[in-house]
Amino acid sequence: MLKHVWFLLIFVMAACQPTVTPTPAPLDIRPQDGLIQWQRNPNQVLFRIEIIGGEDPFLGQGVIPDCTIYGNNHVVWKNDLEANNSEILEDLLTDEGIVNFVNYLTIRERIYTYRELLPEMQARYEVVPVVEHVRIAVNDVVHKADNLSGWDPLWYDRVTTACKTLSQAPVLVLPTSAWLTTREVEFDTRYPLVIWSAMPNADAAGQPIRLSAAVDSPTWVSGLAISELWKTVRRLPNDTLYQEDDRFYNIVLQVPGITRDSPSAPASIPAG
After folding, report:
1. Of 21, 71, 74, 171, which has the fewest CB atoms closer than 10 Å, so is most exposed?
2. Residues contacting 99, CB < 8 A, separation 6+
3. What backbone phi and psi angles, to 5 degrees, belong to 255?
4. Under 8 Å between Cβ of 63 and 55
5. How far apart are CA 210 and CA 59, in angstroms?
6. Whole-angstrom distance, CA of residue 34 vs CA of residue 23
7. CA gap 116, 150 in Å, rounded
8. Residue 132: left (phi > 0), alpha (psi -120 to 50), or beta?
9. How many Å is the Cα radius of gyration of the chain?
């Protein structure tokens, strides 16, 4: 009888304990003080935070993420000024600043407890939702995550702001060289129209830049006209129409080290 009472008491005590949902532990690849390393390649993305999904694949080539840190400590970020208007800034960070930022992401924001779920959703539902996305590449491990894994509603804004404010002396990006790619489209009154002949459109050698020559083929162009085109692109919607002769085009500008997944500059030619 006493034995049965003893087991009953244990059962009641266990049932009265509060239910605790364990907090996911960071992965074993979590960086630690003094052990944070990264590839020092200027084309290697050390950290990137951006909104992805739901975009035109062609126009998406010209997207600039909200904030990116490259392996050579180069940080690039976008400030939205108003509707269809943004400025792009850049700087070089110290190793100490990057290490502190990685520690912040790991300890305060628990970045390694989140994971990338977008590919699973795409495979199951054949949809391309718009998601907040982040990637970090340190200690020879690339870790990706998105908001589908459950970070709080302010997480993305906090981390983006932390990345942008790493800079001590930001400089406005105004390239004079870029990859130009175009596609021919039908005229549509719903979209803004730019007359190509009314813009500076000569390259560094004084030759006219032809939109028709860059259809579906990235073409390396340079000169002050590229700076003017860059400023135009920054203040107009991505689907703006550019008229050359009697044809209409969408354009994409890709600048190495600035735009998402831009090709490298041609060999022996410095990037703009």
Report:
1. 21
2. 33, 36
3. -115, 120
4. yes
5. 19
6. 26
7. 10
8. beta
9. 24
Confidence of residue 269 (pLDDT cuts 50, 70, 90): low
Residues paired with 18 in a beta bridge: none
pTM: 0.84
171 in Cβ contact with 88 (< 8 Å): no
Say if CB 61 and CB 252 are below 8 A apart.
yes
In b/e form, how buried is each residue of 179-212, taking b as 16+ CB within 10 angstroms? Answer: bbbbbeeeeeeeeeebebeeeebebeeeeebbbe
Asked whether the CA dihedral 240, 244, 246, 251 is positive or negative, the reply is negative
| Cα 233 → chain centroid | 18
Per residue in 145-159, pLDDT (tens digit) is 999 999 999 999 999
How many percent of the chain have pLDDT more than 90? 77
Report the distance separating Cα 42 and Cα 45, nearest Å. Answer: 8
Q: Per the structure block, which two tokens stand in for 254?
A: 């890709």
The phi, psi pair for 90, rounded to 5°, reads -150, 165
